[in-house]
Amino acid sequence: MGRLETSETKRSKRPAIYISVTITAVIVLSVFSRIDNWKRDLTTNTARLSAEAVDEQLQPPLVGGAPTEVAARIVSWVDQQGRWKLVSQQQIEQGVEMKLTRTTSIMRFTDDIDVVLRPEGDSTRVQAQSQSRIGKGDLGQNPRNLKELVGHLMKAG
């Protein structure tokens, strides 16, 4: 025979439901508050540094030092970050090519970041692209990945 729930049993479950709903609402609001460009962030899962970018943080920076020096700075920084990892690094004809990943904190999605460092005089031009492995939209995470990388290079350089 099934057990009937008493009104006291129902009342004891209410706080757990309220807590669950509150936590879910906080997570949803946290995600949506980070969206900068609703049209782009819901339909695009890639971002790249571009000279034509309106946002200066998404333009390819010119960083002091040779490509190998800039690569060493990136590796040192990545080693200190919990969500970033160096996948590979190789010398190319003119510069250094790096493959990095960044894992998001909430859903643990992994984004692939490709970085190309090319000499330009005594400095290095940084080109980079970030792409989500899954999904149609990235909720703005790929541009944030690039801004985080460029922000570090500009502070360190």
Compact description:
This protein has 157 residues and is α+β, with helices and mostly antiparallel strands.
Structural features, described:
- This protein is of the alpha+beta class.
- It has one domain: TATA-Binding Protein.
- The chain contains four helices and six strands; from the N terminus they run ααββαββββα.
- It has helices at residues 7-33, 38-41, 67-80, 141-156, and strands at residues 46-48, 62-64, 84-92, 95-103, 110-120, 123-132.
- Strands 1, 2, 3, 4, 5 and 6 form a six-stranded antiparallel β-sheet that branches.
- Helix 3 (67-80) crosses helix 4.
- The longest helix has 27 residues, at 7-33.
- The protein is elongated and about 80 Å long.
- The model has no long low-confidence stretch (mean pLDDT 86).
